[in-house]
Amino acid sequence: MTDVERADKAMTPALIGIDWGSSNLRVALLDSHGALLDRRESPAGVFTVTDGDFASVLWPLCVDWVTQHRVPLLACGMIGSRQGIVDVPYVPCPADVNDLARALGRAELRPGSQYTLFIVPGLKTGSDAAGWDVVRGEETQLLGATVESGNLFVLPGTHSKWMTRGPGGRLESFQTYMTGELFDLLQRHSSLARVMSAPQWSPEAFGHGVSEAREGALENLLFRVRTAGLMERFPSSALADYLSGLLIGAEVKAGLRRFAATDTREPISVLGSAQLTQRYAIALASFGLPVRELAGDAVFSGLMSIARSAGLLVTPRAST
Fold it and tell me: How far is CA 77 from the centre of its chain?
């Protein structure tokens, strides 16, 4: 095989990776090495789909890939939940890529369709006595993250996840914090919203919030957002960042207490959108911890790893 033929083979589409969460949908066309050949996205998350018609939402984003390349479709995220196209049972944590690959769910995009959507199951941890925690989507993102050192990861979002990864990429433990959802509810629908105006990024207000989050109970600290507006401690446009700092600071304090056994001399990896990773990096640094910010596209590398382990990929024939 010539160098040109090897390059063509590497660029041959091998998988359509789908990251379908509660509020967003991202799709990528990947080659056999996991490189992105093309990608598209939509705000049509799982919770926005009506009457369970997921095919009509997904199809416009990738129908040309499907019909032209005839490659498998593999999805992760809330698409595999009870609110999604099919409820795929969780895999117990600890788990590795092979555990997830063996438990893939599947669904027909339309009844009688020749196109099957394979779905990553997600993870669960806990018990009825101790309580349960679950994750869908972030486990795939973490499998795809490439880091040289450190085993503690923070994946901020509507429901932030703190996760640990062991040797060989095995996912060891995780815990969820509803920080993003609480911020949205308090900013939009609580009495605190009455003192806020359109936000303008205020590092000072955010930093104060992170620092004060160490002082006591969050239920008490949150009222300071209201009094900070009443007493004009911060301008109304900075109060959303003050609130954000209090919530993220409280999460970091709780997360570090939960994962105290983790070697915090190694960098803590923060995966996600640049806007969120910046805030978490600032908060973690204020606790004196080294931080590494990573983009959220690792999810597609994770999907490729799972597809490969599950035997979904069709290896192109070598030219003769």
Answer: 8
